[in-house]
């Protein structure tokens, strides 16, 4: 129990000062995750390794570490209403990793990362099913803005070679592998982003308590590994061409960074950001953090990058995300202004208002 002095000190500090350390940790964690994505992209593009096999090799040790850390078999027994949806969520997670990996290899890191925010379209679906007509039109406008952003990304606006804001050819970049795409090719990472949002929704509906959510997440990742195992074996035996049977080089940093930063650490950091900073994944604030990290990595890796075109795409996407979740902003603001004398009821209202 906190002493009156500690309570007075906490009340004396402005809220943004108390949240500053968490915001810094959130930025660093997202930077490390995006760094791992660029490392994995370079490994996949240079070696031509199987996407499914590489992701399974990263997901298997991550699932073991999650099980060791959370120990879902200990503590209060989990009910079937919690375990069964978590196992089903594992199948969705496995499909998400497959589509996300293939989208990363074919579309490049910028388009693969920004496509993860397509899960905000679930806010449009919630408005159509449960919202008012005024909110529906706002969300449809947000959906149009998001589609415009992804169309501009597919047309290479974030690349110096194809961007209309670039007046000189970028011939000194090391990575010219990204090509012009259509919305058909972009649909793979976009659908992966929708699946990522769907698995977050299922996680919130199963449990609102953070400790129980972590235990169930360990079951989800373990089941995702089991679902991914036969696909990886099939891809290794049948899907690989005969000419690629040679031994592929191994990148320690690409695998370790994906395991620790891309799968494990980012889960805990996003959970803390959601609980303490009220920052969900599909939000303009999260997009702003990811956009800054992408700019740094594009410069460091000397990619074919256009900063003005990238900013234009992010502005369209951020506006679309904000409008697509406009109803949830109103609900969250009203829940903060209400009297939250019952803590569990306040958490329930706040978490149920998050569509992604």
TrEMBL record:
InterPro entries: EmrE-like. It comes from the Eukaryota. It is a multi-pass membrane protein. It is found in: Membrane. Coiled coil: none annotated. Keywords: Membrane, Transmembrane, Transmembrane helix. Its main location: membrane. This is Zinc transporter 5.
């Amino acid at each position: 129990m906190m002493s009156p002095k500690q309570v007075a000190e906490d009340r004396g500090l402005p809220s943004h000062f108390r949240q500053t350390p968490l915001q810094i940790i959130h930025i660093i964690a997202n930077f490390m995750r995006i760094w791992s994505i660029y490392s994995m992209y370079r490994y996949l593009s240079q070696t031509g390794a199987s996407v499914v096999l590489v992701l399974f090799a990263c997901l298997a040790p991550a699932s073991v570490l999650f099980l060791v850390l959370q120990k879902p078999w200990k503590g209060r027994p989990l009910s079937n209403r919690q375990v069964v949806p978590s196992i089903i969520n594992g199948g969705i997670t496995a499909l998400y990793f497959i589509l996300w990996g293939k989208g990363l290899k074919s579309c490049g890191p910028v388009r693969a990362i920004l496509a993860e925010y397509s899960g905000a379209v679930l806010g449009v679906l919630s408005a159509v099913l449960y919202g008012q007509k005024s909110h529906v039109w706002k969300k449809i406008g947000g959906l149009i803005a998001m589609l415009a952003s992804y169309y501009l990304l597919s047309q290479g606006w974030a690349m110096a070679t194809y961007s209309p804001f670039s007046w000189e050819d970028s011939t000194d970049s090391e990575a010219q592998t990204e090509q012009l795409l259509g919305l058909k090719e972009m649909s793979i990472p976009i659908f992966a982003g929708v699946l990522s949002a769907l698995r977050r929704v299922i996680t919130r509906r199963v449990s609102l308590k953070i400790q129980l959510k972590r235990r169930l997440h360990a079951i989800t990742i373990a089941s995702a590994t089991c679902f991914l195992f036969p696909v990886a074996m099939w891809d290794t035996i049948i899907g690989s061409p005969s000419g690629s049977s040679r031994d592929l080089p191994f990148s320690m940093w690409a695998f370790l960074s994906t395991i620790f930063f891309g799968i494990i650490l980012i889960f805990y950091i996003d959970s803390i950001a959601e609980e303490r900073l009220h920052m969900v994944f599909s939000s303009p604030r999260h997009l702003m953090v990811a956009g800054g990290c992408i700019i740094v990595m594009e410069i460091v890796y000397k990619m074919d990058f256009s900063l003005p075109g990238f900013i234009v795409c992010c502005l369209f996407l951020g506006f679309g995300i904000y409008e697509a979740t406009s109803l949830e902003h109103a609900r969250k603001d009203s829940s903060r202004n209400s009297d939250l004398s019952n803590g569990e009821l306040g958490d329930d209202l706040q978490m149920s208002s998050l569509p992604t």
